[in-house]
Amino acid sequence: MKKLITLLMVFAVTFTVNAQIETPQPSPLQKIEQKVGLTDVSVQYSRPSMKGRTIFGDLVPYGKLWRTGANQNTMVTFSTDVMVGESTLKAGSYAIFSKPNKDNWEVIFYSDTNNWGTPQKWDDSKVAATVNAKVYDIPMDIETFTVSFDDLTNDSAVLGIMWEKTYVAVKFDVPTDKAVTTAINKVMNGPSADDYYAAARYYLESGKDINKAVVWMDKAIDMTKENPRFWWLRQQSLIKAKAGDTKGAIKAAKASLEGAEKAGNADYIKMNKDSLKEWGAM
Q1: Which residue, of 11, 124, 126, 260, has the fewest CB within 10 Å?
Q2: Rounded to two decimals, what is the model's pTM?
């Protein structure tokens, strides 16, 4: 009996292994990535093939919503906001649906990417952008559905869609110039108050050159004097105290205390009072 059970178990395991043989998918998955200016863009999609079939106007009817590929949604992801046509697409992922026609396509960027094929119930509120894209004839067949990144510049690229003898171009613009200009202006204008504060606090906490910390914290406080921050003033008092400037530490602590009292921050009220007492000011 034990031998019979053992044989049955071996048979079951062998059958299970054989039943899990992996075979090629008819529409294999592909993911492509591209840096456009300073924006990371990726597309994940499945790739059906013609296999002797007529595609547009037959397998893919004209004027009807299409998943723009096979299997799960074709999905594009942008790391920054981009412009598609007249619409702004926020950074994130979008399903790409389309309505192919002979001379042009309506290409739709849909905020819900969790669909297998087209949504069972279409929701117009999830349409993030719609563009009309021109159809270009290709002189040879593209056997397998293909998405590409074409015509790259610092500020834009074209999302190319190819199949059969059809090429459709969807241009998108990226905010490279705005990002670079902002970065240039920031560097050329010198460190910000936040930069000076962060550097000064790091030097205080790391036991580095306290005199540099004094200079940087004084700059941070001066740059924010129109809207003083009591927690910054608290750090200024500690830095000055460590540098041996008790008078300056007391002045900063009193200013911090005043701000903390206006804000009703009990923790900073106590810390400042304790320090002022320690430094002989209370």
Answers
A1: 124
A2: 0.69
